[in-house]
Automatic annotation (TrEMBL):
The protein's name in its UniProt record: MOP flippase family protein
Family membership noted in the UniProt record: Belongs to the polysaccharide synthase family.
Cellular compartment(s): Cell membrane
Keyword terms, alphabetized: Cell membrane, Membrane, Transmembrane, Transmembrane helix
Primary location: membrane
Membrane topology: Multi-pass membrane protein
Pfam families linked to this entry: Polysacc_synt_3
Stretches that traverse the bilayer: 12-31, 43-67, 79-99, 111-128, 149-170, 286-306, 326-349, 356-378, 384-407, 419-439, 445-467
InterPro entries: Poly_Biosynth_Transport
Length: 488
Protein backbone atom coordinates (compact mmCIF):
# COMPACT_ATOMS: atom_id res chain seq x y z
CA UNK A 1 0.00 0.00 0.00
CA UNK A 2 1.44 3.38 -1.03
CA UNK A 3 2.15 6.18 1.44
CA UNK A 4 -0.63 8.28 -0.13
CA UNK A 5 -3.22 5.52 0.24
CA UNK A 6 -2.12 4.81 3.80
CA UNK A 7 -2.37 8.51 4.58
CA UNK A 8 -5.91 8.72 3.14
CA UNK A 9 -6.99 5.63 5.09
CA UNK A 10 -5.49 7.06 8.26
CA UNK A 11 -7.31 10.35 7.66
CA UNK A 12 -10.63 8.56 7.25
CA UNK A 13 -10.29 6.72 10.55
CA UNK A 14 -8.95 9.77 12.36
CA UNK A 15 -11.79 11.88 10.92
CA UNK A 16 -14.34 9.34 12.15
CA UNK A 17 -12.80 9.38 15.62
CA UNK A 18 -12.71 13.17 15.66
CA UNK A 19 -16.33 13.53 14.52
CA UNK A 20 -17.63 11.04 17.07
CA UNK A 21 -15.56 12.47 19.93
CA UNK A 22 -16.75 16.01 19.11
CA UNK A 23 -20.37 14.82 19.22
CA UNK A 24 -19.74 13.05 22.54
CA UNK A 25 -18.00 16.05 24.10
CA UNK A 26 -20.60 18.50 22.85
CA UNK A 27 -23.33 16.30 24.31
CA UNK A 28 -21.39 16.12 27.56
CA UNK A 29 -21.01 19.91 27.75
CA UNK A 30 -24.69 20.49 26.92
CA UNK A 31 -25.92 18.08 29.60
CA UNK A 32 -23.28 18.51 32.29
CA UNK A 33 -23.18 22.34 32.08
CA UNK A 34 -26.83 22.40 33.12
CA UNK A 35 -25.98 20.39 36.25
CA UNK A 36 -22.80 22.21 37.30
CA UNK A 37 -22.06 25.80 38.28
CA UNK A 38 -19.49 28.26 36.84
CA UNK A 39 -17.52 27.79 40.08
CA UNK A 40 -17.01 24.09 39.28
CA UNK A 41 -15.57 24.88 35.85
CA UNK A 42 -13.41 27.56 37.44
CA UNK A 43 -11.97 25.11 39.98
CA UNK A 44 -11.27 22.62 37.20
CA UNK A 45 -9.50 25.34 35.21
CA UNK A 46 -7.28 26.11 38.22
CA UNK A 47 -6.39 22.44 38.67
CA UNK A 48 -5.61 21.90 34.99
CA UNK A 49 -2.98 24.64 35.07
CA UNK A 50 -0.74 22.41 37.18
CA UNK A 51 -1.79 19.10 35.64
CA UNK A 52 -1.18 20.23 32.04
CA UNK A 53 2.20 21.62 33.03
CA UNK A 54 3.19 18.29 34.62
CA UNK A 55 1.88 16.26 31.68
CA UNK A 56 4.02 18.31 29.30
CA UNK A 57 7.09 16.94 31.10
CA UNK A 58 6.05 13.36 31.79
CA UNK A 59 7.68 11.70 28.74
CA UNK A 60 10.65 14.09 28.57
CA UNK A 61 9.68 14.91 24.97
CA UNK A 62 10.77 11.54 23.57
CA UNK A 63 7.46 10.36 22.11
CA UNK A 64 7.76 12.32 18.86
CA UNK A 65 11.42 11.29 18.60
CA UNK A 66 10.20 7.70 18.12
CA UNK A 67 8.20 8.82 15.07
CA UNK A 68 11.03 10.99 13.72
CA UNK A 69 13.54 8.11 13.83
CA UNK A 70 12.75 5.60 11.12
CA UNK A 71 14.62 2.72 12.80
CA UNK A 72 14.22 2.01 16.52
CA UNK A 73 15.47 -1.15 18.25
CA UNK A 74 13.47 -3.14 20.79
CA UNK A 75 16.05 -2.50 23.51
CA UNK A 76 15.80 1.25 22.86
CA UNK A 77 12.03 1.04 23.15
CA UNK A 78 12.35 -0.84 26.44
CA UNK A 79 14.63 1.82 27.92
CA UNK A 80 12.38 4.60 26.66
CA UNK A 81 9.31 2.89 28.12
CA UNK A 82 10.93 2.59 31.53
CA UNK A 83 11.96 6.24 31.37
CA UNK A 84 8.41 7.21 30.39
CA UNK A 85 6.88 5.35 33.35
CA UNK A 86 9.38 6.86 35.76
CA UNK A 87 8.80 10.39 34.49
CA UNK A 88 5.02 9.93 34.72
CA UNK A 89 5.25 8.71 38.31
CA UNK A 90 7.48 11.66 39.24
CA UNK A 91 5.11 14.16 37.59
CA UNK A 92 2.15 12.61 39.42
CA UNK A 93 3.90 12.95 42.76
CA UNK A 94 4.82 16.58 42.08
CA UNK A 95 1.20 17.53 41.31
CA UNK A 96 0.01 15.74 44.47
CA UNK A 97 2.51 17.68 46.59
CA UNK A 98 1.66 21.00 44.94
CA UNK A 99 -2.06 20.76 45.75
CA UNK A 100 -1.90 22.72 49.05
CA UNK A 101 0.32 25.38 47.46
CA UNK A 102 -2.09 25.72 44.52
CA UNK A 103 -5.01 26.15 46.93
CA UNK A 104 -3.08 28.85 48.82
CA UNK A 105 -2.09 30.64 45.58
CA UNK A 106 -5.70 30.89 44.37
CA UNK A 107 -7.23 31.24 47.82
CA UNK A 108 -9.43 28.17 47.14
CA UNK A 109 -9.17 25.44 49.82
CA UNK A 110 -11.58 23.29 47.76
CA UNK A 111 -8.78 22.61 45.25
CA UNK A 112 -6.80 20.16 47.41
CA UNK A 113 -9.04 17.07 47.22
CA UNK A 114 -9.78 17.05 43.47
CA UNK A 115 -6.19 18.03 42.63
CA UNK A 116 -4.86 15.04 44.60
CA UNK A 117 -7.01 12.79 42.40
CA UNK A 118 -6.07 14.58 39.18
CA UNK A 119 -2.41 13.88 39.95
CA UNK A 120 -3.08 10.35 38.65
CA UNK A 121 -3.69 11.83 35.20
CA UNK A 122 0.06 12.42 34.95
CA UNK A 123 0.88 8.71 35.34
CA UNK A 124 -2.01 6.78 33.77
CA UNK A 125 -1.35 7.94 30.14
CA UNK A 126 2.32 6.89 30.45
CA UNK A 127 1.24 3.25 30.48
CA UNK A 128 0.07 3.39 26.85
CA UNK A 129 1.73 6.51 25.42
CA UNK A 130 4.64 4.78 23.71
CA UNK A 131 2.35 2.23 22.07
CA UNK A 132 0.20 5.06 20.73
CA UNK A 133 3.27 6.64 19.11
CA UNK A 134 4.24 3.33 17.51
CA UNK A 135 0.74 2.82 16.10
CA UNK A 136 0.77 6.39 14.76
CA UNK A 137 4.15 5.78 13.19
CA UNK A 138 2.71 2.84 11.26
CA UNK A 139 -0.42 4.88 10.40
CA UNK A 140 -2.65 2.31 12.11
CA UNK A 141 -5.37 4.78 13.01
CA UNK A 142 -8.24 2.31 12.79
CA UNK A 143 -7.51 0.86 16.22
CA UNK A 144 -6.62 4.28 17.66
CA UNK A 145 -9.95 5.64 16.45
CA UNK A 146 -11.91 2.84 18.13
CA UNK A 147 -9.99 3.35 21.37
CA UNK A 148 -10.64 7.10 21.37
CA UNK A 149 -14.36 6.63 20.77
CA UNK A 150 -14.64 4.09 23.59
CA UNK A 151 -12.61 6.27 25.99
CA UNK A 152 -14.63 9.43 25.32
CA UNK A 153 -17.89 7.49 25.70
CA UNK A 154 -16.76 6.10 29.05
CA UNK A 155 -15.63 9.52 30.25
CA UNK A 156 -18.96 11.05 29.22
CA UNK A 157 -20.94 8.43 31.13
CA UNK A 158 -18.85 9.02 34.25
CA UNK A 159 -19.18 12.83 34.02
CA UNK A 160 -22.94 12.75 33.52
CA UNK A 161 -23.46 10.28 36.37
CA UNK A 162 -21.25 12.26 38.75
CA UNK A 163 -22.87 15.60 37.89
CA UNK A 164 -26.35 14.11 38.19
CA UNK A 165 -25.53 12.80 41.66
CA UNK A 166 -24.30 16.25 42.74
CA UNK A 167 -20.55 15.63 42.99
CA UNK A 168 -19.69 18.97 41.37
CA UNK A 169 -16.09 19.37 40.23
CA UNK A 170 -15.37 15.71 41.11
CA UNK A 171 -17.61 14.68 38.21
CA UNK A 172 -15.18 16.42 35.84
CA UNK A 173 -12.16 14.91 37.62
CA UNK A 174 -13.50 11.35 37.42
CA UNK A 175 -14.39 11.87 33.76
CA UNK A 176 -10.78 12.75 32.88
CA UNK A 177 -9.43 9.79 34.83
CA UNK A 178 -11.92 7.32 33.35
CA UNK A 179 -11.10 8.44 29.82
CA UNK A 180 -7.33 8.16 30.37
CA UNK A 181 -7.55 4.79 32.14
CA UNK A 182 -9.60 3.03 29.46
CA UNK A 183 -7.43 4.46 26.68
CA UNK A 184 -4.17 3.39 28.34
CA UNK A 185 -5.44 -0.12 29.05
CA UNK A 186 -6.56 -0.60 25.44
CA UNK A 187 -3.24 0.69 24.07
CA UNK A 188 -1.22 -1.44 26.49
CA UNK A 189 -3.12 -4.61 25.55
CA UNK A 190 -2.11 -4.29 21.90
CA UNK A 191 1.30 -2.76 22.62
CA UNK A 192 2.47 -5.53 24.91
CA UNK A 193 1.57 -8.11 22.27
CA UNK A 194 3.50 -6.41 19.47
CA UNK A 195 6.27 -4.45 21.20
CA UNK A 196 6.56 -6.13 24.61
CA UNK A 197 9.11 -4.12 26.63
CA UNK A 198 12.02 -6.09 28.04
CA UNK A 199 13.13 -5.78 31.66
CA UNK A 200 15.95 -3.55 30.50
CA UNK A 201 17.22 -0.02 30.92
CA UNK A 202 20.49 1.45 29.64
CA UNK A 203 21.50 5.09 29.35
CA UNK A 204 23.27 4.32 26.09
CA UNK A 205 19.88 3.49 24.52
CA UNK A 206 18.73 7.05 25.16
CA UNK A 207 21.48 8.64 23.10
CA UNK A 208 19.98 10.97 20.50
CA UNK A 209 16.49 10.68 21.95
CA UNK A 210 17.13 12.90 24.95
CA UNK A 211 18.80 15.66 22.92
CA UNK A 212 15.72 15.74 20.68
CA UNK A 213 13.41 15.23 23.64
CA UNK A 214 14.76 18.00 25.85
CA UNK A 215 14.02 20.59 23.17
CA UNK A 216 10.60 19.06 22.67
CA UNK A 217 9.95 18.93 26.40
CA UNK A 218 11.12 22.52 26.83
CA UNK A 219 8.80 23.58 24.06
CA UNK A 220 5.92 21.61 25.61
CA UNK A 221 6.51 23.07 29.07
CA UNK A 222 6.66 26.67 27.85
CA UNK A 223 3.65 26.06 25.61
CA UNK A 224 1.75 24.63 28.58
CA UNK A 225 2.55 27.74 30.59
CA UNK A 226 1.46 29.95 27.69
CA UNK A 227 -1.78 28.02 27.24
CA UNK A 228 -2.63 28.50 30.90
CA UNK A 229 -1.48 32.07 31.47
CA UNK A 230 -5.04 33.32 31.05
CA UNK A 231 -6.30 30.80 33.64
CA UNK A 232 -3.52 31.75 36.06
CA UNK A 233 -4.11 35.49 35.75
CA UNK A 234 -7.92 35.37 35.85
CA UNK A 235 -8.04 32.80 38.65
CA UNK A 236 -5.63 34.78 40.79
CA UNK A 237 -7.19 38.20 40.15
CA UNK A 238 -10.92 37.45 39.89
CA UNK A 239 -11.64 34.05 41.50
CA UNK A 240 -13.35 30.80 40.48
CA UNK A 241 -16.68 32.16 39.23
CA UNK A 242 -15.23 34.67 36.76
CA UNK A 243 -12.70 32.08 35.64
CA UNK A 244 -15.58 29.62 35.26
CA UNK A 245 -17.29 31.72 32.58
CA UNK A 246 -13.97 32.13 30.75
CA UNK A 247 -13.13 28.42 31.10
CA UNK A 248 -16.53 27.47 29.71
CA UNK A 249 -16.13 29.84 26.74
CA UNK A 250 -12.61 28.62 26.05
CA UNK A 251 -13.73 25.00 26.25
CA UNK A 252 -16.49 25.58 23.70
CA UNK A 253 -14.17 27.43 21.31
CA UNK A 254 -11.10 25.24 21.71
CA UNK A 255 -12.87 21.94 21.06
CA UNK A 256 -12.28 22.13 17.28
CA UNK A 257 -8.57 22.85 17.87
CA UNK A 258 -8.27 20.12 20.50
CA UNK A 259 -9.85 17.58 18.18
CA UNK A 260 -8.92 18.61 14.66
CA UNK A 261 -5.33 19.74 15.24
CA UNK A 262 -4.23 16.44 16.84
CA UNK A 263 -5.93 14.62 13.96
CA UNK A 264 -3.85 16.53 11.42
CA UNK A 265 -0.69 16.36 13.55
CA UNK A 266 -0.92 12.62 14.21
CA UNK A 267 -1.24 11.87 10.51
CA UNK A 268 0.95 14.61 9.06
CA UNK A 269 3.96 14.02 11.34
CA UNK A 270 4.74 10.44 10.23
CA UNK A 271 4.01 11.31 6.58
CA UNK A 272 6.13 14.48 6.57
CA UNK A 273 8.86 12.58 8.42
CA UNK A 274 9.02 10.11 5.54
CA UNK A 275 9.37 13.07 3.12
CA UNK A 276 11.94 14.97 5.21
CA UNK A 277 14.70 14.47 2.61
CA UNK A 278 12.52 15.39 -0.40
CA UNK A 279 12.32 19.18 -0.31
CA UNK A 280 9.78 19.72 -3.11
CA UNK A 281 7.37 17.03 -1.92
CA UNK A 282 7.72 18.24 1.67
CA UNK A 283 6.80 21.80 0.67
CA UNK A 284 3.83 20.72 -1.42
CA UNK A 285 2.59 18.41 1.30
CA UNK A 286 2.81 21.10 3.97
CA UNK A 287 1.02 23.74 1.87
CA UNK A 288 -1.78 21.29 1.07
CA UNK A 289 -2.07 20.63 4.79
CA UNK A 290 -2.29 24.40 5.42
CA UNK A 291 -5.13 24.73 2.92
CA UNK A 292 -7.01 21.76 4.36
CA UNK A 293 -6.76 23.17 7.90
CA UNK A 294 -8.11 26.56 6.81
CA UNK A 295 -11.03 24.97 4.95
CA UNK A 296 -11.90 22.86 8.00
CA UNK A 297 -11.27 25.23 10.92
CA UNK A 298 -12.32 28.61 9.53
CA UNK A 299 -16.05 27.88 9.01
CA UNK A 300 -16.30 26.42 12.52
CA UNK A 301 -14.81 29.47 14.24
CA UNK A 302 -16.55 32.03 12.03
CA UNK A 303 -19.85 30.21 12.46
CA UNK A 304 -19.43 29.88 16.22
CA UNK A 305 -18.76 33.60 16.54
CA UNK A 306 -21.91 34.73 14.72
CA UNK A 307 -24.27 32.12 16.21
CA UNK A 308 -23.08 32.35 19.85
CA UNK A 309 -25.86 34.74 21.04
CA UNK A 310 -28.48 32.16 20.07
CA UNK A 311 -26.45 28.97 20.57
CA UNK A 312 -25.40 29.45 24.20
CA UNK A 313 -28.84 29.99 25.82
CA UNK A 314 -30.41 27.31 23.63
CA UNK A 315 -27.81 24.59 24.20
CA UNK A 316 -26.36 25.35 27.64
CA UNK A 317 -28.89 27.55 29.44
CA UNK A 318 -29.22 31.24 30.21
CA UNK A 319 -26.86 30.93 33.21
CA UNK A 320 -23.97 30.98 30.71
CA UNK A 321 -25.01 34.18 28.86
CA UNK A 322 -21.98 36.00 30.31
CA UNK A 323 -19.77 33.68 28.23
CA UNK A 324 -21.23 34.82 24.85
CA UNK A 325 -18.90 37.81 24.20
CA UNK A 326 -15.95 35.73 25.39
CA UNK A 327 -16.84 32.98 22.90
CA UNK A 328 -17.02 35.51 20.05
CA UNK A 329 -13.57 36.93 20.83
CA UNK A 330 -11.88 33.62 21.61
CA UNK A 331 -13.22 32.08 18.38
CA UNK A 332 -11.21 34.63 16.40
CA UNK A 333 -8.12 34.09 18.53
CA UNK A 334 -8.26 30.32 18.23
CA UNK A 335 -8.76 30.50 14.46
CA UNK A 336 -5.45 32.34 14.12
CA UNK A 337 -3.85 29.96 16.60
CA UNK A 338 -5.10 26.91 14.72
CA UNK A 339 -3.31 28.09 11.58
CA UNK A 340 -0.04 28.10 13.53
CA UNK A 341 -0.23 24.97 15.68
CA UNK A 342 0.14 22.33 12.98
CA UNK A 343 3.52 23.74 11.85
CA UNK A 344 5.04 21.81 14.76
CA UNK A 345 4.61 18.65 12.63
CA UNK A 346 6.84 20.18 9.97
CA UNK A 347 9.56 21.10 12.45
CA UNK A 348 9.50 17.74 14.22
CA UNK A 349 9.47 15.86 10.91
CA UNK A 350 12.76 17.60 10.07
CA UNK A 351 14.13 16.96 13.54
CA UNK A 352 14.17 20.70 14.35
CA UNK A 353 12.75 20.60 17.84
CA UNK A 354 15.15 23.46 18.60
CA UNK A 355 13.21 25.80 16.29
CA UNK A 356 9.91 24.76 17.90
CA UNK A 357 11.40 25.56 21.30
CA UNK A 358 12.69 28.94 20.09
CA UNK A 359 9.28 29.91 18.71
CA UNK A 360 7.62 28.86 21.96
CA UNK A 361 9.95 31.13 23.96
CA UNK A 362 9.11 34.05 21.68
CA UNK A 363 5.40 33.28 22.12
CA UNK A 364 5.79 33.42 25.88
CA UNK A 365 7.48 36.82 25.62
CA UNK A 366 4.57 38.15 23.56
CA UNK A 367 1.60 36.60 25.35
CA UNK A 368 2.54 37.15 29.01
CA UNK A 369 2.61 40.99 28.92
CA UNK A 370 -0.41 41.07 26.58
CA UNK A 371 -2.63 39.02 28.91
CA UNK A 372 -1.45 40.87 32.00
CA UNK A 373 -2.32 44.24 30.47
CA UNK A 374 -5.63 42.86 29.19
CA UNK A 375 -6.62 41.61 32.66
CA UNK A 376 -5.91 44.97 34.28
CA UNK A 377 -7.83 46.88 31.60
CA UNK A 378 -10.89 44.68 31.17
CA UNK A 379 -10.95 41.43 33.28
CA UNK A 380 -12.02 38.34 31.25
CA UNK A 381 -13.01 40.25 28.09
CA UNK A 382 -9.74 42.19 28.24
CA UNK A 383 -7.76 38.96 28.46
CA UNK A 384 -9.61 37.52 25.46
CA UNK A 385 -9.00 40.64 23.32
CA UNK A 386 -5.33 40.77 24.32
CA UNK A 387 -4.96 37.08 23.43
CA UNK A 388 -6.42 37.72 19.98
CA UNK A 389 -4.05 40.63 19.28
CA UNK A 390 -1.07 38.60 20.49
CA UNK A 391 -1.94 35.69 18.17
CA UNK A 392 -2.12 38.02 15.17
CA UNK A 393 1.40 39.22 15.96
CA UNK A 394 2.65 35.67 16.47
CA UNK A 395 1.32 34.58 13.09
CA UNK A 396 3.97 36.68 11.33
CA UNK A 397 6.70 35.62 13.77
CA UNK A 398 5.80 31.97 13.26
CA UNK A 399 6.26 32.30 9.51
CA UNK A 400 9.75 33.77 9.94
CA UNK A 401 10.97 31.31 12.56
CA UNK A 402 9.28 28.08 11.48
CA UNK A 403 8.33 28.03 7.81
CA UNK A 404 11.13 30.05 6.21
CA UNK A 405 13.81 28.03 8.03
CA UNK A 406 12.46 24.72 6.73
CA UNK A 407 10.78 25.47 3.37
CA UNK A 408 12.47 28.72 2.37
CA UNK A 409 10.72 31.98 1.50
CA UNK A 410 7.25 30.98 0.29
CA UNK A 411 4.97 33.72 1.63
CA UNK A 412 2.87 34.00 -1.53
CA UNK A 413 2.33 30.25 -1.75
CA UNK A 414 1.59 30.05 1.97
CA UNK A 415 -0.96 32.87 1.94
CA UNK A 416 -2.48 31.52 -1.28
CA UNK A 417 -3.06 28.18 0.42
CA UNK A 418 -4.94 29.85 3.30
CA UNK A 419 -7.05 32.47 1.48
CA UNK A 420 -9.72 30.22 -0.13
CA UNK A 421 -10.78 28.64 3.17
CA UNK A 422 -10.71 31.94 5.08
CA UNK A 423 -12.53 33.90 2.38
CA UNK A 424 -15.21 31.25 1.90
CA UNK A 425 -15.81 31.17 5.65
CA UNK A 426 -15.95 34.97 5.95
CA UNK A 427 -18.57 35.23 3.21
CA UNK A 428 -20.62 32.51 4.87
CA UNK A 429 -20.34 34.16 8.31
CA UNK A 430 -21.40 37.61 7.07
CA UNK A 431 -24.44 36.09 5.37
CA UNK A 432 -25.40 34.11 8.48
CA UNK A 433 -24.98 37.21 10.65
CA UNK A 434 -27.26 39.16 8.30
CA UNK A 435 -29.85 36.40 8.49
CA UNK A 436 -29.83 36.64 12.27
CA UNK A 437 -30.35 40.41 12.17
CA UNK A 438 -33.15 40.13 9.63
CA UNK A 439 -35.05 37.43 11.56
CA UNK A 440 -34.64 38.61 15.16
CA UNK A 441 -37.91 40.57 15.20
CA UNK A 442 -39.98 37.81 13.60
CA UNK A 443 -38.75 34.49 15.06
CA UNK A 444 -37.64 33.12 18.42
CA UNK A 445 -34.01 32.29 19.22
CA UNK A 446 -34.36 28.58 18.49
CA UNK A 447 -35.80 29.16 15.01
CA UNK A 448 -33.15 31.76 14.19
CA UNK A 449 -30.34 29.41 15.28
CA UNK A 450 -31.76 26.56 13.19
CA UNK A 451 -32.06 28.75 10.10
CA UNK A 452 -28.56 30.18 10.63
CA UNK A 453 -26.94 26.76 10.93
CA UNK A 454 -28.79 25.23 7.98
CA UNK A 455 -28.18 28.21 5.68
CA UNK A 456 -24.53 28.44 6.79
CA UNK A 457 -23.81 24.80 6.00
CA UNK A 458 -25.51 24.97 2.60
CA UNK A 459 -23.92 28.29 1.67
CA UNK A 460 -20.43 27.17 2.67
CA UNK A 461 -20.79 24.02 0.59
CA UNK A 462 -21.83 26.07 -2.45
CA UNK A 463 -18.98 28.57 -1.99
CA UNK A 464 -16.37 25.84 -1.58
CA UNK A 465 -17.67 24.11 -4.69
CA UNK A 466 -17.35 27.34 -6.69
CA UNK A 467 -13.83 28.05 -5.43
CA UNK A 468 -12.68 24.42 -5.66
CA UNK A 469 -14.78 22.96 -8.42
CA UNK A 470 -12.07 20.65 -9.74
CA UNK A 471 -11.29 19.17 -6.32
CA UNK A 472 -15.00 18.76 -5.59
CA UNK A 473 -15.56 16.96 -8.91
CA UNK A 474 -12.57 14.72 -8.21
CA UNK A 475 -13.96 13.86 -4.77
CA UNK A 476 -17.46 13.14 -6.10
CA UNK A 477 -15.99 11.14 -8.97
CA UNK A 478 -13.98 9.04 -6.55
CA UNK A 479 -17.08 8.28 -4.52
CA UNK A 480 -19.03 7.27 -7.64
CA UNK A 481 -16.18 4.99 -8.76
CA UNK A 482 -16.17 3.27 -5.36
CA UNK A 483 -19.97 2.77 -5.55
CA UNK A 484 -19.68 1.32 -9.05
CA UNK A 485 -16.92 -1.07 -7.95
CA UNK A 486 -19.00 -2.29 -5.01
CA UNK A 487 -22.02 -2.85 -7.28
CA UNK A 488 -19.83 -4.71 -9.79
Amino acid sequence: MSLRVRGITAMKWSSLSTAVSIVIQLTQIVLVSRLLKPEHYGLMGMIMVFVVLAISMNDLGISNAIIHRQHVTRRELSSLYALNLGAGAAASMIVWLLAPLAAAFYGEPKLVGPMHLMALLCFIPAIGQQFQMLLQKELQFDYLAKVDIAAYSFGFAVALTGAGLGYGVYALVWSHLANALLKSVCLAVVGWRRWRPEFHFARSDLKGYLSFGFYQMGSNVVQAVISNLDYIILGKMFGAEKLGYYTFAFQICSMPVQKLNPMFSQISLPILAKLQDQADRLKKGYLRLAGAVSYLNAPIFFGLSVTAPYLVPFAFGSQWDASVPLIQILAGMLLVRSLILYSSSLLLAKGRADLAFRYTLVSFGVILPALTIGAYLGDAAGVAIAYFIAQLLLFGIHYKISIVRILGACLKDYVRSLIPGLLSSAIMAMTVFGIGIALQTHYNATAILSIQVLSGVCLYGIIVYIFNRENAKEMVGGVLVKIARKQT
